[in-house]
Design brief:
2 domains; 3-stranded parallel sheet; 15% strand; single chain; globular
Length: 205
């Protein structure tokens, strides 16, 4: 995907967090115009040891061949490790500043701008950025604070994008608005799956 975007003339930065020992990466990205940011977690050595200790055991055991047992065992193992990963990504302010400098927010705004003229995006954006705001498409509106229950109750509201906090999820369920959930850490994954399972959301996990 990164190569396709770069081939169409865009500047591309590939953020590559190493959660497991990813092998055979040489030649995976072909375009020389793609900048790659490799991100190693503080507990990367622990993850490698866990991978070496657990994967071979699971792969060769009766657990892996039993769909019910393997789903419970592997889900528990992955969730414990990914939670530490997601927490570090969430709290790493230096990483946030680095990614922010790559203008990812601009890419999101440009994507919104490609929507039909009658589609409006209300974006809760708490940091004041006057220069960025000047470049926003006309259908994108920054708000530092939004009365969320009132917004969700508005009949013009069609889709709600959220990280999957419990409060927002309860409001979504109450109003019956469809949601796109993008969980980033902690209990958000379970909450997103729960709402998706009941038909109230699409979850990006």
């Amino acid at each position: 995907m990164a190569d396709v975007i770069a081939d169409h003339g865009h500047n591309v930065t590939l953020f590559q967090p190493f959660h497991i020992a990813m092998k055979n990466l040489d030649g995976l990205v072909k375009s020389k115009n793609i900048e790659i940011i490799n991100y190693y977690l503080d507990h990367y050595e622990e993850l490698l040891k866990s991978e070496a200790d657990n994967f071979s055991v699971l792969w060769d055991s009766h657990l892996f061949n039993n769909p019910v047992l393997s789903s419970f065992t592997m889900s528990k193992m992955f969730m414990e490790k990914f939670e530490k990963t997601d927490t570090q990504l969430y709290l790493d302010t230096n990483l946030h500043a680095e990614l922010k400098s790559r203008k990812f927010d601009v890419a999101i705004a440009e994507t919104f701008g490609a929507a039909p003229f009658y589609v409006t995006f209300i974006w809760k954006y708490e940091k004041g950025d006057a220069e960025f705001e000047k470049r926003l498409p006309k259908n994108v509106h920054f708000k530092k604070w939004i009365p969320q229950p009132a917004l969700l109750s508005d009949k013009r509201m069609k889709v709600f994008v959220t990280h999957g906090g419990l409060g927002s999820t309860m409001e979504i369920a109450y109003t019956g608005k469809p949601a796109l959930m993008v969980p980033i850490f902690g209990d958000r994954y379970q909450i997103a799956r729960m709402l998706a399972r009941h038909g109230g959301a699409v979850s990006q996990i």
